[in-house]
């Protein structure tokens, strides 16, 4: 799921990492960016910069805490996988006790900051996102079901809700659609990675879809989820959260991602899986960029 993304940009095997890698900087940046995106969508050109700064700091602390706890709980599995064995915990550069203590301080500080300076709903949604990712996904779903990524992707829906409620104080339809978009993005992203590292997941006892049901099933479902994701991306225009710039950008990027997923289904090669994984890394960030640009150009809105 989105909160669990940890591979490099190309999905290649791991390499020695510094201690800072325990917070998963790439994923941290993407999820915090998701929250900032819906905040700007909710506030437009009138978005309070102070609230954005508080959301940024609270998001960095909270998502960072969730990522650290995920690393602690995944320590044994990570040590069995070539792609992940060089993360700070399995490599021994950070100890589990120190990691848990740091995560507790970060998580409590992030939630408290949002509660005291933004609003209670934003803080509660942030806490719920942490708990869902750590307990529901990492503890319950990941080691037990090939649907782990599908259901666990719900954790990735929390940052868009957090961003919207920070500005509006309530959950809005555009934020729900952005959250659903992240949920549907998660399976194509992670199953393309799993196709590249199937032996790793098998060795670690993680029942990823390609391991349990085979590559062909995974490829077909990647296409299905990509189609669903594109449909939801179009609903954002109907919901009034975006405008023409987003419409053109999302159609172009979505068509490219769909073409790559269909190519994976037809060609069945590692190169095709790697291209899709790389493109999916860029897709969400690019979509967030055009969403922000549209929000800052309200005269362009179709709704």
Could you please describe the fold and organization of this structure?
- With 303 residues, this protein is mainly α.
- The protein has one domain (2-300): Farnesyl Diphosphate Synthase, CATH 1.10.600.
- It is built from 14 helices and no strands.
- Helix 1 (25-43) runs parallel beside helix 14 (270-295).
- The longest helix has 26 residues, at 270-295.
- The chain is globular.
Architecture blueprint of SSEs:
Layout: H1 25-43, H2 49-73, H3 75-79, H4 88-91, H5 96-117, H6 120-141, H7 148-152, H8 158-168, H9 173-196, H10 198-204, H11 209-213, H12 215-238, H13 244-267, H14 270-295
Observed structural traits:
disordered N terminus; mainly alpha; Farnesyl Diphosphate Synthase; 74% helix
Largest sheet: none
Reported CATH architecture = Orthogonal Bundle
- Quick check: average pLDDT? 90
Write the CATH fold name.
Farnesyl Diphosphate Synthase
Strand content: under 5%
Q: What is the CATH C-level name?
A: Mainly Alpha
The beta-strand count equals 0
Binned, the helix content reads over 70%
- Helix and strand pattern: HHHHHHHHHHHHHH
Domain count, please report it: 1
Overall morphology: globular
**Class by alpha and beta content:** mainly alpha
Give the N-to-C terminal Cα separation: 32 Å
Unreliable spans = 1-11
Number of helices: 14
Spatial extent as radius of gyration: 19 Å
Structure summary:
The protein is mostly helical. Helix content is 74%, strand content 0%. The N terminus is likely disordered.
């Amino acid at each position: 799921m989105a909160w669990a993304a940890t591979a490099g940009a190309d999905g290649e095997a791991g390499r020695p990492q510094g201690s800072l890698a325990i917070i998963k900087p790439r994923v941290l940046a993407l999820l915090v960016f998701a929250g900032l995106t819906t905040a700007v969508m909710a506030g437009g050109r009138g978005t309070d910069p102070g609230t954005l700064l508080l959301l940024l700091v609270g998001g960095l602390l909270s998502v960072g805490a969730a990522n650290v706890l995920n690393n602690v709980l995944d320590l044994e599995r990570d040590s069995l996988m070539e792609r992940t064995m060089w993360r700070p915990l399995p490599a021994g550069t950070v100890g589990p006790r120190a990691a848990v203590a740091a995560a507790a301080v970060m998580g409590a500080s992030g939630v408290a900051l949002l509660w005291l300076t933004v609003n209670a709903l934003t803080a509660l949604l942030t806490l719920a996102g942490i708990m869902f990712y750590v307990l529901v996904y990492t503890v319950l779903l990941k080691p037990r079901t090939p649907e782990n990524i599908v259901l666990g992707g719900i954790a990735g829906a929390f940052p868009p809700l957090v961003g919207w409620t920070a500005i509006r104080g309530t959950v809005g339809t555009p934020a729900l659609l952005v959250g659903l978009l992240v949920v549907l993005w998660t399976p194509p992203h992670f199953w393309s990675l799993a196709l590249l590292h199937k032996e790793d997941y098998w060795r670690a006892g993680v029942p990823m879809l390609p391991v349990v049901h085979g590559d062909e099933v995974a490829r077909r479902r990647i296409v299905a989820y990509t189609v669903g994701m594109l449909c939801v991306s179009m609903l954002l225009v109907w919901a009034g959260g975006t405008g023409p710039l987003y419409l053109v950008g999302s159609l172009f990027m979505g068509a490219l991602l769909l073409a790559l997923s269909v190519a994976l289904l037809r060609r069945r090669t590692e190169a095709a899986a790697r291209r899709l994984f790389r493109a999916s890394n860029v897709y969400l960030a690019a979509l967030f960029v055009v969403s922000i640009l549209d929000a800052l150009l309200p005269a362009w809105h179709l709704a």
